[in-house]
Amino acid sequence: MKKRLVVVKKSDGSNGRRNHHWSASSGSEVRYAECQKNHAAKLGGFAVDGCREFMARGEDGTEEALNCAACGCHRNFHRREVDAEVVFEYSPPNSN
């Protein structure tokens, strides 16, 4: 008999692994939130531009898709949010 556990979690993109009698599959949606680039770093200060959400400048698969249309920064400067649904199936050992 297999038991099924569905976990919906929000993570920062890190991925921990475990070696048990588990099989896992996941589906996730990645979003990029506010820009965190410090525009005043050269002056020794801290100032962000206020861009609240990443909007791709071009179509998926192009270099322009990695730049934000609102602030011009690379996507890596925006905070990454991952909504994931992870399904674990566990097969207990036979109790014979």
TrEMBL record:
Record GO cellular component, one term: nucleus
GO molecular function list: DNA-binding transcription factor activity; transcription cis-regulatory region binding; zinc ion binding
Domain of life: Eukaryota
The keyword Cytoplasm is assigned to this record: no
GO biological process: regulation of developmental process
Keyword presence, Zinc-finger: yes
Renumbered residue ranges of the record's region Disordered: 1-26
Coiled-coil regions listed in the entry: none
Keywords: Metal-binding, Zinc, Zinc-finger
Name of a matching Pfam family: ZF-HD_dimer
Alphabetical list of InterPro entries matching this protein: ZF_HD_homeobox_Cys/His_dimer
ZF-HD dimerization-type domain residues: 32-81
Protein name, per record: Mini zinc finger protein 3-like
Organism of provenance: Cucumis melo var. makuwa (Oriental melon)
